[in-house]
Amino acid sequence: RASPSILRRSWCGGPSAQRAVVFIDGEAGTAGLQVHERLEGHPDIKLLSLDPALRKDEAARQDALLSADAAILCLPEDAAQEAVALLDGAGTVVVDASTAHRVSKGWTYGFPEMAPGQAA
C-alpha cells in the first residue's frame, strides 16, 4: 500500500472541519479537469490528488480511493470497474462518469418503447 506522503491535498475554500474529502480518479483527463475546476473552490470540499507520476500506480490510487469520503471516477469503463474493485467494499461514495455501472447488455436506451418487452 502506498504511503500517505505521496498524496497531495488541494485545500479548497475556508477552514472547516466538516469538509468532505473528494478524490477525482482520472482528474488529468477532459472530464476530470472539468469536475476539478467546478469543485476546487467549493467551501465544503477538500480535493485529494495524486502526484502526476503516480496516476497509474494501483497502490497509490487505492490509497487515495480509501482515504476519500467520495470518489468521482472520470475513467474509461474498464478502468472504472477496476477502481471500484480497489475499494473492496469500503464506505467511499462513488460517482462514476462512465457507463460501466449504469448500462446493461441487451437493454435499449433512449427509446424503450421501440424495443418489444422494454416499454414501461
Describe the structure.
With 120 residues, this protein is an alpha/beta fold. It has a single domain (4-100), classed as 3-Layer(aba) Sandwich (Rossmann fold). The chain has helices at residues 30-39, 58-67, 77-87; strands at 7-10, 20-25, 45-50, 70-73, 93-96. Strands 1-3-2-4-5 form a 5-stranded mixed sheet, with helices on both faces. InterPro entries: NAD(P)-bd_dom_sf, Semialdehyde_DH_NAD-bd.
Overall pLDDT level: 84
**Domain module tally:** 1
> Low-confidence spans: pLDDT under 50, at least 5 residues?
1-9
- Proportion of strand residues: 15-25%
CATH architecture: 3-Layer(aba) Sandwich
Could you tell me the CATH topology label. Answer: Rossmann fold
- The Rg value, from CA coordinates, equals 17 Å
CATH superfamily: NAD(P)-binding Rossmann-like Domain
Structural topology:
Blueprint: E1 7-10, E2 20-25, H1 30-39, E3 45-50, H2 58-67, E4 70-73, H3 77-87, E5 93-96
Parallel strand pairs: 2-3, 2-4, 4-5
Antiparallel strand pairs: 1-3
Pfam family, one: Semialdhyde_dh
InterPro entries: NAD(P)-bd_dom_sf, Semialdehyde_DH_NAD-bd
Organism: Pyrodinium bahamense
